[in-house]
Every structure is written in structure tokens, then in C-alpha cells.
Design brief:
- The protein has a five-stranded antiparallel beta sheet.
- The chain has two domains: 72 residues, Nucleic acid-binding proteins (OB fold (Dihydrolipoamide Acetyltransferase, E2P)), CATH 2.40.50; 62 residues, no CATH class.
- The chain is 46% helix and 24% strand.
- The chain is of the alpha+beta class.
Length: 147
Amino acid sequence: MITERGVIDKISGRKAIVQIRKSSACSSCESRDSCDVHGGKPMKIEVINHLKAGKGDQVEVSVPSGTFLALSLYVYFIPVVALIGGAYIGGTFLAPGLSLSATTCSIIFGFLAMGVAFFLLKRYDKTPGANRKYRPRMTRIVTKLQP
């Protein structure tokens, strides 16, 4: 299980916005020095506040390792397979019928297939089942802010 600690920035109904700084998962990553996904800013994620934590509380947020692996597969592997498959189909089967060079068709249909893959993944991400299944969970309150 991948866990991170963060501070609750905002409470909105049953949901909480948790502000997380790069830490444990980032420390073992080979790309940590070149990673600037959030521009050095803390990451903010939305979690269901089933522990009834308050604003300013330090909480632990977890994502099961299997879920993390599945998300990595969706985000990285599927678009690359679509790119390669689209390039192959475009260059091999569609180029002769379109009277274009195989290289041009490979480039066009490779990127088109990858774009379609990203679109479908984004659409799947908005479905209620996927959203609930892959969402990080608040697992415990580490430090409660004193009122």
C-alpha cells in the first residue's frame, strides 16, 4: 500500500481536500530530481472524509499497490500500445488506399489512435465506478489540530 501524509486544506460536505508534499513514494523514484509535475507546489487531492477529520488535521492517505499498478497500466501502457497499433495499421493497411506515404500514415494514425486512447481513458475516469475504485482513501488521522 502506498501511503502519504498531508494536511487537510478544506472541508466540503463529506469530502476533504488534502494537501500533500512529495515524500515517501518520491524518495525511491529514479525521476525525483527531474520531476516537476506540480511545479514544486504541494499536490492537492480530494478524499472522502469518513474519519470526520477537521481543517488543519494531519492525515494519512493511502492507495492500494494493486490500484496504483492498474492506474499506471492505464495511463502509460494503453496509450503506447494504441500509438504503435495505430502506426502499424496506418502504415501497412491504410497508406495504399489513401495514396500517402507509409511514414506519413503511420505518424497520423499513430497519434490519432493515441489521442482516442487518452480520450477514452478520460471518459472512463469520469464514470462513478472507476472514480470510486481508484480514489485514494483517508486511512487515519495522524495529528488532530486543537481548537
